[in-house]
Amino acid sequence: MTPRITPIESRRVYTGRIFDVAVDRVRFPDGSDGELEIIRHPGAAAVVPIASPIETTDDPTVLMLRQFRYAADGDLWEIPAGRLAPGESPAECAQRELLEEAGVEAERLDHLTSIYTTPGFTDEHIHLFAAFGLQPREPNRDPDEFIEVSPMPLSQILERIRTGEICDGKTIAAVLFLAGFRLGL
Question: What is d(CA 85, CA 92) in angstroms, rounded to the nearest whole number?
Answer without folding.
Answer: 9
